[in-house]
Each structure stands twice: as C-alpha cells, then as structure tokens.
Amino acid sequence: MFLKNCWYIAAESREIGRQPFGRVLLGEPVMLYRREDGTPVALEDRCCHRRAPLHKGKVLGDLIQCGYHGFTFDASGACVRIPGQDRVPAGIGVRSYPVIERHRYLWIWMGEKEKPDPALIPDFHYTDDPNWAAVGACLHVDANYLLLVENLIDLSHVAFVHTSTIGSNEDTKAELKFERSDGFVRVVREAPGISCPPSMRALGFAPVVDQKKIITFAPASNIWIDIPTRDAAPVAGRNEPMQRRVMILNAITPETERSCHYFWVNARDFDQDNAERSAYFLKTVTFAFNEDKEVLEAQQRNIELDYDAPQVNVHADWGGVQARRLMDQMIRAETGAD
Amino acid sequence: MFLKNCWYIAAESREIGRQPFGRVLLGEPVMLYRREDGTPVALEDRCCHRRAPLHKGKVLGDLIQCGYHGFTFDASGACVRIPGQDRVPAGIGVRSYPVIERHRYLWIWMGEKEKPDPALIPDFHYTDDPNWAAVGACLHVDANYLLLVENLIDLSHVAFVHTSTIGSNEDTKAELKFERSDGFVRVVREAPGISCPPSMRALGFAPVVDQKKIITFAPASNIWIDIPTRDAAPVAGRNEPMQRRVMILNAITPETERSCHYFWVNARDFDQDNAERSAYFLKTVTFAFNEDKEVLEAQQRNIELDYDAPQVNVHADWGGVQARRLMDQMIRAETGAD
Amino acid sequence: MFLKNCWYIAAESREIGRQPFGRVLLGEPVMLYRREDGTPVALEDRCCHRRAPLHKGKVLGDLIQCGYHGFTFDASGACVRIPGQDRVPAGIGVRSYPVIERHRYLWIWMGEKEKPDPALIPDFHYTDDPNWAAVGACLHVDANYLLLVENLIDLSHVAFVHTSTIGSNEDTKAELKFERSDGFVRVVREAPGISCPPSMRALGFAPVVDQKKIITFAPASNIWIDIPTRDAAPVAGRNEPMQRRVMILNAITPETERSCHYFWVNARDFDQDNAERSAYFLKTVTFAFNEDKEVLEAQQRNIELDYDAPQVNVHADWGGVQARRLMDQMIRAETGAD
Question: Are B295 and A68 within 8 A, CB to CB?
C-alpha cells in the first residue's frame, strides 16, 4: 500500500530524452519520454493490447509505438493507430500520468486526480537556484522506502555509519527538538563543538565546529536536511567565524514493497562555480549513501527473516515514528480504510 | 494446468545419446537416453528411492543406474536392481513415458494413455524430407508458453520486432482470413507488394515481393507457418516470377507456468544442398527468435506485476484468441473441470 | 520446524575472533564474537532498535556496538548504551544464546533453557585428541538438513557417488546391522574383501581390504562414522595385517528449511604428525563431500517440483527412517504437537 495522491519523482530530468525509458514506480510499470518540444510524457508502460512494455518501442514524433505489434499512442495515452486496421476502437489506450518538470526532476502524480495541483510539488529549488550549486544521483535500494525515510530523519546514525565521510564520530550528543504539523514532521539536531566531518575539512573550517541539522519530512517521502556549519573556535587571521550551508534534498519513490528509487541532491551555498568541489561532493556523498544502502538492505533481509520481531523506540526515533504515523493516517484516509 | 493427452517434443534427436539427459516438461522432471540399439527412452527423472534425478546417473546397456544409491531401472521404468539386497520389491520403479522418434525429434506423451496413437504426432516431415532443407534449434524462454503461441499466430508483430531480419516494415496491411475447426486454428495473411525482407534479399528476389503466410495452430502447441514468397514485379532477364517457399515449424513444450522450451525449424524448398545458405538461415532466424524471446520475457515480467491488467483484442488477434479458447476447452475436457 | 533444545555447532572455533561474525541458524540471525579473554559470545543478530544485523557493527572490549545507531550490548545481550541519551530503558536488549567452545567448535543452544547441560554436547574429542589428527571444514548446502542426515546414515551411496575418492565400487554387498535406542540410531556396515578405496591406497594397504563402518546418529544432527580398515590378504614382509582407523564426525546445522551448514571432520589414528597426509585428506574429502552436495541439491530441486512424490524405503534405509522418526518424535514432544 502506497500513498497515491501526491507528487513523486519519476526520474531525473537528464535521464529522460527522446528514447523511451521504463521504471517501476509504486508497483506499476511507467514509461517516460519527451515530446518534440521537450515536454515530458509519462504513460503506463504496458501496451493495452498484449501488455508488452512500451519503453521497448519507438518514439515517433510525439507518439510512442509499441515494439511488439505497433499499437501507437499519443501523449495522452490514447491509442491512435493499430497496424492492419483502419479504425481504432473508441476509448482504448494506456493510462497517462500527470508529469511536471521542475527543479531538474520529473514529478509524477499516480493518484486518481486528473489535474493535480502543481503547487504541491515539493520545493527542490536548490537544484537550480544560482545561489546554490547542486550535485546528485539516483540510487536503487533493495529495501522498503520507509526504512530509508527513518534513516534520514534520525541522523544519529551519521556518527556510526559515515565517520569516514560526512559524519563526525563525536556527533552523538546533539540536542533534539521535534515538531509535527498536519503536513510535516521536523527534527532539529544541534551538535555544538564536534570535530569537523572529513568531507568538510578541505573547506578550511576550524578543527572544531558547531553543526545544526534541520530535518523536514513531508509525505510521501521527501526530506530536506538543512545543515549550517560554522567554526566553533577562533581561527588565526579570521575576524568572523566561517559559516557554510549544505542542503541535502531527498526524494524516495517506492518501486515495490521491498525496493525503492532514492533520488538525492547535495546543494551548497558556497564555491558555486567550483567544479572540483562539485566533483568532490558527488563522489563523497555517493560513497556515503552507499554506506546507507548496505545497512538498509541488511535491515530488509533481517526483517524478512521475521516480520514480527519487535523493535524498541527511543528519544531519537520520535521523528521517524511520527513520519510513519503520518503516512499511515494519510494512506488510510486515501483508501478509506478507516 | 497443461494439456496432457497429446504429443510434445521432449528433445531434438541430436540432443539425446547414450549420456542421460534431464529436462523439466509440463512441470515434471523427465530424463532421456538411448538404448544400445539407438531407440529412445523417456523416464521420470526422479528415482523412486530418494528422488535424486536419474539423469545424473549412468546408462548401463539399456538400463539406467541412479547416481546416488545405484537403484537400476530398465527402459520400462521397472526397478531391476537394488544394491545391497537380492530381491527387488514387486512393482517399484519410475514412470515411463511413451516416446517416439520422428522427423529429427523425440515426441513424448505425458498423459495417462499407455499406448497413444503415433498417428497423432504432428507432421514435421519437412525436417527430413529430401525436397526440403531444414535448420533449427531449441530456445529456452522465460515466459508462459501461450504467449509464444500468440506470438506465432499473429504475425503482425514481424513488421515491428524483426525488421532487421525476417520482416518487412511495410508488412502492416496484410489481408487476413481465419478458419477454426475442432482440431486447429488457421490464419492466412496475404501481403502483396511489400519490400523484400532482409533475410531473403540474397536469394535474388525483385525488390518488391508478394508474401503469403499460412499459419496453422494445433494443440497443444504446434504451429506451422507456410511462407510462399514471389516477385511482385518483373526482373530483367527472368521470364517467370521467382517463387520460394519457407516453412517454419514450431513446437512449444511448457517447462513451468512461467517458462517453456521453444523448438523451431526453418525449412526451405530451394538450395537444399547449399550449406552456406543453411548456416545463414540458422544464424538469422536464431537472431530473430531471440528478438521474440526478449519481448516475451518482458511481457511475462509485466504480467507478473499485475495478473489482472486488462488487454484489448483486435481483428488480428482472432487466431490467438481462438487458440486460447481451444486449449481451454481441451484442458477442461481433460480434467473434467466442466 | 527444527529441534531447538539441543546443542548445534554455530561455527568452527577458527572462524570466530574479535571481528563480529553473522550466520543464520535454524532460521534465526545469530552473531558471534570473542570477548577480550577469548571466550565466545552468541547473540541475536538483530539490533533491538531498528533490526540491523549486529555483525555489521564493532566489537568494543567485551561489548558489541551496532553499526547503525550505535546501540551497544554486553555479552549477555543487555543494551548498555544508547547514544544521545543518558538512560537505557530497563530490560531492553537482544537475545543471548548459551555457547560453549569445545573440540574446536562453538556449540550453541537455541532452545528455551537458560542453563543447558554442557554434558549433552556431542563427543567430538577426536578433533583435539593427541592420538588423532583431524582436518575439516564447513560446507554450505542448499538442501534440507535431513537429506544430508539420510545421506550419512546410508553409506551404500559411497559405492556410487564417491568411487573416485573415498569409496570402492565393490562396496555394495555390505552386511548391515541396526540398533535404535531412545537417544541414537546406529548402523553397522561390514564390507569384507573390497578393493582399497582410492583415498587410502597411498597408505600401503593390501589391494583388497576389510572395511567396517559404524555409523551413529544422535539428534539433532550429529553423525559419527567410525571406519576401521585392514588388509584382507597377506602382504609380503608384513607379519600382521595393517589396520587403520578413520573417524568422520558430522554436525549439520539447519540454516533454513531449504539449506544447511555442514560441519565435517576427518580424523585418523595414524600419521598424526604428517602434514602432507592431512593436506591430502582435507583435499580429497572436500572433493568427495562436494560430490554429495551436488546430489543433495539436485534432490532438493526435484523435491520442490513435487513435495508429494512418493518414495520407496528398502533395507538400507532403516537407519535413515529411524532417524527421521526419532527427530519427528522429539520435535513433536518439544512443540507439544502430540
């Protein structure tokens, strides 16, 4: 059971061109391509004729032609041509999904509403705001998407999973503040006086820094992590403490109950034109998020050995617990399960 | 659920020798070998003692000895020797299947009848008729066998899947005629004035040809495709239009509900002694049928995402729909499900 | 369903050090490590917090720290530290399993009893008795553990599976004696006058030997095979017949219903200090037991095609049948299924 009536990332903008592209989202086969004018199309990736995946077919102008028997569909999913016969029966076609390109991503709406509100698309403006430089990728993870949501809301794991990259092993005593409203869950972690994480040392911080993390979760599975870092001690020849801000954007789209697509962005408000810096962050954060992938997939395997094994919640889990509760309420409301 | 009371191909003749050979057919493990006089034997590939597959054992004369504890069976499946004891309990053994070698194949009967009628073996005489030259192979396909049956009955896919090999991309306006009797389903496709398919160009046809395809399906899963092709325009220095006939024989034996063994033959009534021509057809058709395999396996994966997704039938599907209906009736009759 | 209230081998002593080690036993994730004083610890390999496997964490002194959020457990499984908070809620932790190191193995008790009797640990003293030299290994087998138990109790397979290594193909007429008590099943195989098995020829036996095999099975899945071999004919210059004894120890720990860990030892009462002899036996027996693995995995695949296919028991199966019956009775008694 997934939340349907919300925007999910279907793909990075750069992944989709004139070649048809297939991906399973929320358990459904979806295919994407661009019209001649560059606007994106998202259709059910299953021909209405014999269920072959359309992404193995050909884009012809703005149409997609199935690679099996040549059934051809327009960008609304309507079947417009059936080879071997003059008429196309009324009303046949494949499902079309609203898709909007924004902030370097293609956002898809898989719920029932035909004209969903673009204003509900999560704010990922950091990806194309000139004040920020952003790098990112899509990581396939063989674990239920909520395990990744929990991972990102409770950043106490950083001091254990990522000490060689983005974490400081002293970051275990942060002060936590929690907030929940109808639409989001927020956790603020303040970690004063920790050693500068390896990935930030090259920036010239003092050896000891104050680091704050403002983590905001909004359904279905978007997490913003705003990370201001600044010198915690004077540095010779520096009048004011150095301060830098990193924003980690995360959007997780379930593939199946056991796997998900993890779209992440690392945006920074400094050295925006420094390509070497960008390459460094892309490499380091990719490495770090593969550390998470390893943990999450091991968790998933363990859970599948015994779905009912109990687990304990502690203070730091407040955010993850609230996020699961919020999702549960929204899915129940959507399916009328209440 | 498979149709049991009919002949299926178990193996190509050349696959079976004095070494025991194992293959799963209709969900059952079957093993094959040849007696000293060369006649084939088909037995349950599961020792009656501890269920080890007999094909991992040894052929001794006309007997097969299990590789685990040495239980030995004659060609009727009767256990004739148990190491370590003098007597063999009465009546123990493994199931024996009627098997007949004909037309370069071993045909097996997996139904209940002990003496099935050899006259019911499908007519594959083109494989060893001196008027024809035949090449062929066995392709393992991870898809339900009926998807392959549909594929072969509705050749409108040729203009989309096989345009670099055996198809012409203009072959989308064929005239179709349909016929169904109790025992078979037939589709006749007439495609006048299409460009000569790539695989036939070397034969010297006019650039434009008339091509007919007479497709005959008979349960369980045999499909004959008779393809006469001839010049559609005069060729300089040629008094009569060139005409050539290719016969594609197809026999599909289910392995499981999700996989099948696809035995195919490409026979031709010309250049019978031309080994180069044979090699060319073997290579080209193998390539083409692997194009089908890719489509069929993608279809199967899509179907497994949602078994209940609807599909639309159009004019060209008449043959496939009738074939499924015929199979369904016969399986119901056999199992008494009506 | 596995028998729980008994000792199983969890690992070879040499497999476990200060690095945490994970293995699935009886369907449960288990992790092992050694305390600073070298004594072994066995814990549930699933953090009580978010179910990450503890074996991916770090051993700190005598404690194990989860690699995800740093929850830390002592060797009794009690949670002693939760990063980010001062207090640890009372009573939380992971399950601890009694584990005893004996005879080069770590023996684990996965049943309910907290203080199981170490006297019930199977007698594997041959592994570290100075009168014996022992080699061994752990083999992972994708088959139900009882298939391997049957394999080891009915050694009539040796004359078919292992004729190039540890078996003689003449060893098919052994005299069998059977014995069953409440706690064990015993089979004695006497094979006089067989050709010396390949693996023993280098020892200088006469070409023909008398070989006895005393096979003792005790639940859950320990099998001792005592094999005295001696010259069956005079050898020039030898006053008394040469006699050698090999003891094969086997302990099988189920991983899942479809797979198991097979711990085996080949111990000998001769050439104890001959490293070359040890290397030879390790290599040869490893090869032979991989022959078994191939048969067992093929059996398992066949069984999964049809769980209900019947099988026949003969004289030589008495031991295996009794072993299965004994296991069945004990499991029923343990689970109260009677």
Answer: yes
